[in-house]
Amino acid sequence: MPALPHGGVGRRIAYYRSAMRPKMTQQQLADTAAVSLGTIRKIERGERGVSDPTLEAIADALGVDPTRLRSDRDAAHTPVHVALPALSAALVAFDIPDDGAPRPLHELETAVDEAVQWRLAAQYTRIARRLPGLLTDLACAYHQAPEGERVVLAPLMVSACRSADAVAYKFGARDLSARLVDLMRRTAPEAEDPVLAAAVAYVRTETFFAARAHTPGLRALETALDTAPAPTQDAQIAARGALHMRAAVIAGRAKNTTAAQTHLAEARALGDRVTEDVYCGTAFGPDSVRIHEVSVAVSLGGDQVGQALDVAHEWKPPTALPAERRSGFYIELARAQLWSGQAEQAFESLKVARHIAPQHTREHPWVREDAATLRRLRRADSETLTNFAEWCAAV
């Protein structure tokens, strides 16, 4: 892999290492990243470049996204954007896969599980690099399998498409996202699993958000709720609860206060019946419902915004929740704070979101809008705010 330019990346590594509490030594960073101490010293002094694998290992050891360490921050988007055509090509060729020997099922299961973890951690660069090949391998296995065995492969295909969609949707490739959702909808019935069908209905809502078709999106979710399995077991409770959470948010976007509050109440009641570790395509539980309370309040706007501030005053999302969901909470909170005249607090919330999930925060359109607004208001340290606005392409 080509080395990154000298200097800038080393300074950033040294900065993040020194900023840790307690401060991480060069030896500790070397041990954690499985890189020699001499290599760390030379990188920080700008005496050698850094390959992509080494940079990712160092970033993991520091607990930051690799994009935060790169010297050329404008090029940080490149790995994801470069991979989008490959994702599209893998999708186009789904019905005409290679006729080679398919990968063993256990390898496909492991690869899909890994992609799910990357999605929950908002590690989109890794997804973008790996998913084109994984989708191709899954298509090969899916089309060569006897019809009776597709019941096992269909959930894997749906889950892989979900991870790929996380990249496509958040990086603005909305047509690709819609095609991935369509493939999920066509494949899910072969799994013969109503919980999986509910998860696909949850994801499909992205297409309505993208088109700002909030009222039709609400109808689609309510139709999915009509066919969702009865909430008698944890997985079924989580599936139905997630649909209610999503319906509450899109009802809020449609300014349908009654529907938003009704669905939120249903989600809250179901959330009280399960623990947060019940995962059926999306996280669900009492903490996830609280995050959606903030989202609904921000979506409704007006007098409801104070509800978002009240929730945040009493509660913060625990670290056990997926990084993408936790960062989303602080992005929503920042908007509520900004609307309430709390500019400084809004900027702090945006910085927390960036610390939790840099790529998710950087690609979120609300972050760009709010950072640009904060910069116009000049309500924070000018240099720090300008750097943040440049980082998320708000200027």
Describe this protein's structure.
The protein is mostly helical and 395 residues long. It folds into four domains: 8-71, lambda repressor-like DNA-binding domains (434 Repressor (Amino-terminal Domain), Orthogonal Bundle); 78-192, no CATH class; 194-321, Serine Threonine Protein Phosphatase 5, Tetratricopeptide repeat (Alpha Horseshoe), CATH 1.25.40; 336-395, no CATH class. It contains 20 helices and no strands. Helix 19 (365-377) runs antiparallel to helix 20 (382-391). The longest helix has 21 residues, at 124-144. The radius of gyration is 22 Å and the shape is globular. The two termini are 31 Å apart. The model is unreliable at 1-6 (pLDDT under 50).
List the helices and strands and how they pair.
Layout: H1 8-19, H2 26-33, H3 37-44, H4 52-62, H5 78-92, H6 105-120, H7 124-144, H8 150-170, H9 174-187, H10 194-211, H11 214-227, H12 234-253, H13 257-271, H14 286-300, H15 305-314, H16 323-339, H17 343-356, H18 358-363, H19 365-377, H20 382-391
Helix pairs in contact: 2-3, 2-4, 5-7, 5-9, 6-7, 6-8, 7-8, 8-9, 8-10, 9-10, 10-11, 10-12, 11-12, 12-13, 12-14, 13-14, 14-15, 14-16, 15-16, 16-17, 16-19, 17-19, 19-20
